[in-house]
Amino acid sequence: MKTTIEKNFQVDEPIDKVWEYLSDPAKIVTCVPGASLTDTIDEDNYKGEVSLKFGPVKAKYNGQITFQERDKDNYKMQLLGKGLDSKGKGSADMLMNGVLVEKGGQTDVTCTMEVTITGMLAQFGSRLINDVSGSVFDQFVKNFRAKLAGEEVDNTLSAGSMIKGMFGKK
Amino acid sequence: MGHSLKRKEDARFIQGKGHYVDDIQLPGMLHMDIVRSPYAYAKIKSINAEEALKIPGVIAVVTGKDLEKYNLHWMPTLMSDTQMVLPTDTVMYQAQEVAAVIATDRYAARDGKEAVMVEYEPMKPVIDPYKSLDPDAPVLRTDKEGKKDNHIWHWEVGDKEATEKLFNEAEVVVKEQMHIPRIHVSSIETCGCVADYDKINNHLTMYMTTQAPHAIRTVIALVAGHVGLTEEKVRVVSPDIGGGFGGKVPVYPGYVIAIAVSFLVGKPVKWVEDRSENLQADSFARDYHITAEMAGTKDGKILGTRFKILADHGYTDAAANPSKFPTGMFSIGTGSYDYQTTFMEADAVYTNKPPGGVAYRCSFRVTEAVHAIERITDRFALEIGKDPAQLRMENFIKKEDFPWKSPTGWEYDSGDYHAGLKKAMEVVGYDELRKEQAEKRKRGELMGIGISTFTEIVGAGPSKDFDILGIKMFDSAEIRVHPTGKAIARFGTKSQGQGHETTYAQIIAEELGIPAEHIQVEEGDTDTAPYGLGTYASRSTPTAGAAAAVAARKLRDKARKIAAYLLEVSEDDLEWEPGKFFVKGAPEKSKTIQEIVFAAYTNHPQGMEAGFEATHYYDPPNLTFPSGAYICVVDVDKDTGEIKVRRFVAIDDCGNIINPMIVQGQVHGGLTQGIAPAMYEELVYDEDGNILNGTFMDYLVPTAVESPSWETGHTVTPSPHHPIGAKGVGESPTVGAPPAIANAIVDALAPYGITHLDIPITPYKVWKALREKGAN
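YS: structure for the whole thing
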C-alpha cells in the first residue's frame, strides 16, 4: 500500500535557519507526530520509534532513519525511514524528499513523502491512509513552524485530529 | 410436488433457535485464536510467546514446529496439492495462519494473539499472475521438490487446429480480454469448529461448518489415521449452517489445528473466525483472466469460440473441483448455441495470495464460462449490428435437437431456449424498451438492455467421470417409516439454508403418500446419515433428491406386496394413487400407506422382511442442464457514471419444480449474489500483497438497498433422466445475472464505442471510460 503526498508551505524564516532545523534529526523528529529518537548510530543513521493511530487501531513502529542526502549547497535532503511494527503486525517505510527555496526573505519548503505500509494498517485501504497521512503531515508542518518560532512543540499523538483526518474533515 | 409448502426449518430460524457451531458449549472447552501474517511473503525469524503466556487464561501457543513433530504441519488440498497447516519457516500470503493461541476463554485467546511477537523478514511477493510466469519470477513453492516455476497445470479441450482454421477464415472475429474478479462468498456465518477428542475412548467428535461432512470424515481419517484417528473413531457433525456457497467445502488450517490441540490435551477446542479473517484468509472464488473470442458470419451465424484462461490460484491449488476437472465445468462455455468448433485452454499459476478457487454458488467455474460466452456473444452482435436477442434466437440449439452433444463432450439433457427468451422478452416488454432506448440515444441519454441466455451444468455427478479424492460423486437417502406411518429420512447432503428439510419431505410425500409434515429430515451427522458427498454445485436435488425418490419407490414396491397380501389380491390387480393402493375397478377396497406400514411391523406376509425401510445411493446417469433467460435494463448517468438497474427479469428453467416458493427464494438470493460481482465486489490486492478491502467497510456486499426489485418466472423443461424430472436451481441466478448486467451497461455505453468493461462495473469505471471517449 503506497501513498504519495506532496506539500508545499512557506515559513517566515531565513533559508539557512530552516535548513538547520530540517536537516537536524533531533529537531525534525520531534516535529513528527508520535515520533521519537532512541539512538544515534552515526551522523546519517538513527534509531527511532513512530506511533500511529487510525481510529481504534494503534501501531508502533521501531526502525531506522537514514539521511540518504543532505546537500546544503542546494538545500536538498532525502530521508529514508524504515520501521517494523513492534508487535509484528506489519511495516512502514517512508521516503521523504525536502527542497528549500528562498523567496524574498521567506523560505519555500516542498516536501514529498512516499509512504509504503504493509500489514494490518494497509488493509484500511487508500481511502484512510491518504487522509490520515495527510493529517499527520499537516500536524508536522504546524509543529515545524512552531519549532522555528521557538515555541514548545507537543508532538504526542492527537487522536482527535487522526479521526478528523479519517473522515476527511481537514 | 409443485406446492409452496412453508419451510419446516424456518420455525426455528426465525425464532433464533437455530443451532450453529458457535452455539455449542462443552464442559472444559478451550478456545483458540489465530495469529496471522501481516506480510504476503516473508521468512519467519522467530515466534516469541513469552508475553502471551503471561496473560491469565492463555495456556499454550502452538506453532508449525510443534505440529511438525506429529507430521501435522501440512495437509493435502482437495485438488491433491499441499497446504501448510501452520508454517515452519515461510509465510506465503497475507492473513496466513502463523500460530494458534489456546486459552480458557475467547477473550484471553484474543489477548494472547495480540501479545505473540513474531519477527519476519519480508520478501518481494508475486502478486500479478501474468508476472508469475516470468522467467525471473521467484519460485514460490520451494517446498515442492524440483519445482522450477510457478505454473500449476495446463488444461485444454476442443479442436485446436480446426478452431485456428475457422478463426483464420471467418468473416467476423471478435475478441475481448476479461477478468472475472476474485470475490468471496461472505456467508453470514463464518467458519468454525469444536474439536472434541475423548482420550479414554480414542474418539473424535468434530462439530464443524462443513457442506460435506462425510467427505471430511474420510479426509480426517486419511490425514490423521497415523496417529490413531481411523475412520470409525471419527464423527463429523455439521449443525445448522448460516450459508455456505462453496466456502465451507474446503478444509481450513483452523480445523486441523483445533483437532491437533484437542487430540494432544484431551479437551474440546472451539475455533470461530471473525469476519475479517473469513474474508481475508478463507477460500476466494473466481479470479480467471479470460481471452474470449468468437467467429461467425456477417449475417450473425455463430461458428466457433476460443477461450484462453489464466487462473490465479494463490499460494496453493485449494479449489474444490471434481478431481478430473481442474477448471471445473468451464467447458460448458460453448453456451446455448448450435455450433461445433471450439478450443479452450487454461493455465493455473501460484501467487502470494490466499489459496482457493472455490465454486461460489456455481458448479465449478460455470460462472466464469457463462460470463465469457454471454459477453462475447453480445460483442459479436454489436460488431455486426444485429439485435442481441435476435442473434441468440437464430443461434439457439433447437428444442427438438436435445439430447444435444456439445463440442466439449457434454450431452445436454433437455432445453427450450427459444421459449425462455421469448417469455423474458414479453415480460420485460423488449420491443418497447428498444424503441425507448433509440429515442433516449437521440437525446444523448444512456440506457442499456442486457441479455444473458445461459446453459448451466449441475448435479455432479456420474461416477464414471466425477470423484473428489477418488470418492465417487453419488449421493444418498435412507428412509425409515415408523409403525404409525411417520417417517425419518436421512441424507448424505447438508443444507446451509436451501430448505432440504422441506423439499426432501415433499419428494418423499409425492412418491409415498405420507404427508410432508410427517417426514422428519436429518442431515449432517456422519454417525447416522448415509454416506454422501454433500451440498454444493446445485447437486442436492439432482443427486440426493433423486435418491429420495428412488428409495421411496423401493418402499412403494414393498407396500404393493403388503397391500396385495392384506387385500388378498394379486399385486397386478392393485392401482396406486398417492397415499393408497386400491383394487382395480373396486376403489372402495383399498389400504392406505399408513395401514400398510403398520402391517409391515404387525402383520407382514410370512417370508417377507419385516419393517419399512429403504436406502438408495443414486449415481446419476448424466448431469442436468438447467437454463435461463435473463434481461436487465439499466440507466446510466453520463456525468457521474451512476448505474441504476431499472428492471431485471429472470426466467429460469430448472425442470420440474418441487417447491415454487423455495425456488423463488433461491433465485432472489442468487440474483443478489449475481449483482454483487457485476457491480460491487472484488478482493483487491496491492503490489505488496496487502488486501486493500479486508473488511465489510470496504468490501461491498450488496444489501436490500442496492438490490433492484427482481421479476422472476419460469418455463418447465423436465430432465428426461432424473427420476422426478428436476434439474436444480441454486446457482442459476448467480451464474446468469452478471453477464446480463454487464451486457446492459456496455449496451448503454455502446454509442461511445465502448465494447467491454470488466466487472465489477462501478460508477467510477463507467465515468472513466466515458471520459476517455470524450462523453462527459
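YS: worth flagging: The mean pLDDT of chain B is 96.
IM: good catch. Also The first strand of chain B starts at residue 30 and ends at 36.
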